[in-house]
Amino acid sequence: MTGYLVRRILYAIPILIGVNLITFALFFFVNTPDDMARLALGGKRVTEEAVEKWKRDKGYDKPHFYNAEEAGLSRFTSTIFFTKSASMFVLDFGVADDGRDIAQEVRTRMWPSLAIAAPTFFVGFAFYITFALVLAFFRATYVDVTGVIVCVAAMSISSLFYIIGGQYLISKLWHLVPISGFGDGVGAFKFLALPIAIGIVSSVGANARWYRTIFIEEINKEYVRTARAKGLSESRVLFRHVLHNAMIPILTGVVVIIPGLFLGSLIMESFFSIPGLGSYTIEAINNQDYGIVRAMVFLGSILYIIGLILTDVAYTLVDPRVRLD
Amino acid sequence: MPFKPVILWTDALLFLLVASTIAFWLYVRGRPHLRRPWRNLAQSAQGMAALVFIALFVSIGLLDSVHFRERISGGDAGQQDRFAVQTLSVLDAIVGPLRTQTEKTYSAPLATHLFSKETVELENGERVRTYPRLKFGGAHLADPDADWLADVLRTMVAGLGVAAIGWNLLVLLVASLVARRSERSIGESWNAIWHGREAVPWRAILISAGVIAFLLIPMAVLSTKYHVLGTDKVGQDVFYLTLKSIRTGLLIATLATLVMLPLATVLGIMAGYFRGWVDDVIQYIYTTLNSIPSVLLIAAAVLMLQVYMGTHPEMFDTIEQRQDLRLLFLCLILGVTSWTGLCRLLRGETLKLREQEYVQAAHAFGVPHIAVISRHILPNVMHIILIAVVMDFSGLVLAEAVLSYVGVGVDPTMTSFGNMINAARLEMAREPMVWWSLASAFVFMLMMVLSANLFADAVRDAFDPRISSGFKADA
Description:
The complex is a heterodimer.
Chain A: H1 2-28, H2 33-41, H3 48-58, H4 74-77, H5 80-85, H6 102-137, H7 142-155, H8 159-173, H9 189-202, H10 204-219, H11 222-229, H12 234-271, H13 277-286, H14 290-318
Helix pairs in contact in A: 1-14, 2-3, 6-7, 6-9, 6-10, 6-12, 7-10, 8-9, 10-12, 12-13, 12-14, 13-14
Chain B: E1 3-6, H1 9-29, H2 32-42, H3 45-63, E2 67-73, E3 82-89, H4 90-95, H5 97-100, E4 118-121, E5 127-130, H6 144-182, H7 186-194, H8 202-222, H9 238-274, H10 276-291, H11 294-311, H12 319-353, H13 357-364, H14 369-406, H15 417-425, H16 436-463
Antiparallel strand pairs in B: 1-2, 2-3, 4-5
């Protein structure tokens, strides 16, 4: 197990280098730092000095990969790539346009994000599985047909409408929770309840329908017939045998949801003005703060890779046949 | 010429796509083994009903993709023609007044007065704060308070009447076509259609055509006198904006697929077929791309595009060209971020196929790799590609709205569902609420995505006998 984890982490390194190179190329080769300076300073009538000053302030006045003017090791370290991209490997993201340290900002903002993403993920997962099991239990009856129709309709609605509708109904008409904002400690709960609920409801369609397909495929297998022939009750068959064996394909699919969590929280946080990583990213996009966007791309890939490794670990928990070594 | 045709990049690609779809259809027609799954699809009521709706959206989108610039002066011999700066589409020409009849600001659906109070100067010089009359919506009414309801109802009934006539003609046409083919009387074939005894689910097709006719025709008739779905902040007709948004959604969904398809197919088959280092390299590329959350990659790429466009304004003659290039680039990025899933599926399938006896035999006969791939591998993974394409469609339409909200979607000046929702969202706090733009975007988007989803399910059932979304699985 330990050996496997070490190997997986080593595998992650070339991928992160790749991500780093892609972002570097995107941010420094598509447009030259001169172009960025001109746009940031506004218009064409920008003096050469102003552009130079902007580049110096940002640290963009260096060559891309190789600095011939320096001596020794600083030929490589005194470059844009080393100071802006390679430094991200030690989680040094530099400073944002407003002068604050991005890494520090990420550390404080990750908790509100986690407070939304973790419950949305786990409660949602339990809810979808329960819902899908109910549909599978009542398979080929009107309950099932109605459920699937509801799922297809629900997955055809844009997530923006769930948020707008939820905010309007629950916060504005019924005044159950505040429309937006964030608090400390237990007080945060009333701010988090609605975003979490909406996060779960907005993806119930796609997930529940898909889990239902997996369950139904599993129900048609031989061992289920054997279990029934032995006289086990239908609920026991479903919960003990089918659920257990369906966990493997379900877990495989959970990997697909993890990057989606990030997207979900991006919109959710900005709609509910929760000071997390998602709203930070949206603000950065609107203010055209490239440093923050670059850092978030890198951070997002790290989270994704961690998610992949955790999924593999989860396999060993549900399926004793899987051994990681 | 009284107009000058303008071919935008996206138009050209869209029509290329339509042409290749027709070519593909002609190819399949002549081959019975390829035709069979399509026949299954044609017999699925769900698939055909959804297809009617899709056909409606596609035809609106195509009409909106034929662009031209009107001539404003010239035309005589020797005189230089001058053309308007604004690029119009055939759809704009058809709905004409909808585009030009703009009010001052918000007005509710079918309203005769503005939504907000304004200070109006009366004829005797007195100033009053009141809801002013609309310039176009219900402008023909002498006394709106008394005549409004009767006029709306009368217009609606007229519209329903037109719809009923049109729909009955359609029913008659279909029934007589079926009658001619099966050599029965029209009445008999109508009975067969109505009781679902025909192989092709004509009943489902006619019902969905009826739903469209009875909804859209009264709306169209009403929209000649009123703003059926109200007006937005700058007084533009919401019905018109909704129609224009269809093209944007359609383009994003189809062009992103056009980018994604060759990448996924070529790389996926190559990885599975050649294995070894080719496989390693391709797997590395898609794992790396996959590990970047796609919304962030799109955001980063679009931000860089904005810088590029900001520093190269000379590249774009008209605002439409700028919108168009941004849309095209967005499709490109969406395609680049979404090919990995299909690529992985194709790689797995190709790994299985290359061990089959007929592929081994081809190798033994010395058939070159390219021929083996095109003759034996590609036709056998075609169903996977097709299913992936239809399944992705609805997701891409939904993605547009979210991306536009984040600020990295289509150009903010372009009409799209995302921009409509975004603009309407700012009015949520207003009392009473401005709900109509949001509701129209919601309903039309739901119709588009739902029909795409239902069609995708039908395609999957027809082409992949293994997975079934229906209720037959448990039988």
